Amino acid sequence: MKLITVRGEKKLYGRVDISGMKNAALPIIFSTVLTRDKCIIENVPNVSDISLSFDILRLLGANVTYYHTTGVAVIDTEPLSKNYATYDIVSKMRGSTYLIGALLARFGSSHVGWPGGCDFGSRPIDQHIKGFEMLGAKVSFSEGYIDAVAKNGLVGGNVYFDIPSVGATVNIMIAASLAKGETVIDNAAREPHIVDLANFLNMCGADITGAGTSTIKIKGVESLHGCTYTIVPDMIEAGTYMVAAAAVGGEVSVNNVIPKHMETVTAKLLEAGVDVNVDDSEITVRSEGRFRGISLRTLPYPGFPTDMQPQFGALMSIAEGVSNITEGIFDSRFRYLEEIAKMGGVSEVVKNKAIITGQKKLVGAKVHSTDLRAGAALLIAAMAAEGETEITGVELIERGYFDIVGKLRSLGADIELIEK
Ligand code: EPU
Known about the structure:
By secondary structure, the chain is an alpha/beta fold. The chain is 31% helix and 26% strand. The chain is built from 14 helices and 24 strands. It has helices spanning 22-31, 48-59, 87-90, 98-107, 126-134, 166-177, 192-203, 235-248, 263-271, 309-316, 335-341, 372-384, 394-398, 404-410; strands spanning 2-7, 12-17, 38-42, 63-67, 72-76, 84-85, 109-113, 138-142, 145-149, 158-160, 182-186, 207-209, 215-219, 228-230, 250-255, 275-278, 282-287, 295-297, 322-326, 346-350, 353-357, 366-368, 388-392, 414-419. A 4-stranded mixed sheet has the order 22-23-1-24, covered by helices on one side. Helix 4 runs parallel beside helix 6. Bound molecules: uridine-diphosphate-2(N-acetylglucosaminyl) butyric acid. Uridine-diphosphate-2(N-acetylglucosaminyl) butyric acid binds at residues 23, 26, 94-95, 118, 123-128, 163, 165-168, 189, 306-307, 329-330, 372-373, 400.
């Protein structure tokens, strides 16, 4: 078992390099299934969800080499021969849903276990299924598996999503890239990772326009070729260090970021009274550790990201005054507040709303990370708190943050990763 111990109240100073975005890398890694050529993917973050995606591709028959020190992955899907992925492995990760679109496009059928992922309420895939059906696939379910079949190949169609789902948009972009004719996705997700996927697929010869807007057009092509592509920086990792600096105090520059992707986080920190300076590819947060409570509502991009909500919840736990958070994406993403309550945090959750009454101080305690971003929130709370905090559930944090303990320690945090 792994645990992280933090002795709090050590201000953070210095510069931290931001890794490639996990949620951009996963769709790109799975969409290499569409080509039979080699793809070289750069700036791939060394996190456990990514290793798992490589393991899944290897199980399907692909050759994958990942160079940990440089973050370069060489993926050769030419030998990939299986159109199925078993439940035991895909259930460990949400991103494995992308295999359905990728295998369906390559083989005309797929048999994939029900995807897992962080647990914050129900996470249906009805929009993905609807999209596949609009492209001519027949989809059925049996004993924890999703079967999709398009006997005569996929055919472009019009797909309207009831909600702008990231996963469904990715899946239909992947599937439609090799379909016959044009697909139009309306009410598409607009996240930067959608744009990154479109850029990657276009570099491989796909014909995708409109990514980053609500309407994406995909003209199917006969085949895709390999390419070399660099993943965009992780806006959530960057935001996490920005909020950590704000909460704990000090001066931290997040380096290698795209400031446009950070606009909501920057705006909300400024609203809380934190000093934020934005440069070309670097953002600096200066804080005395004093700031006021704010209201925020998570929404699909360009709204405030749900993946930054827990980190802000930690910040608000020690802000002056009362803060209100409305979670607009997931049913149940406030469990971290019960953990922060063990450190003296005061909050009330009613359905998808949390009211947080800021406290002068949190005090170290034994807490458990219930999901990836909850873990990030607990680290922030622990670094701001008096005394020692012990965090379990570290494996969940490692799903999406490369060397978070090392990076925080290099900024001056008194933090240790212990393996028992
Ligand atoms: N939804 C449906 N039906 C669907 C798909 C989604 O009702 O068919 C609902 C979901 O239940 C949710 C909302 O739509 O209420 C948005 O879900 P979305 O599909 O956009 O999320 P996702 O693709 O499952 C990705 C990220 C999450 C991130 C969300 C929202 C990956 C691998 N996961 O999930 O990342 O929170 O988008 O931005 O990209 C994380 O990194 O910590 C993480 C959880």
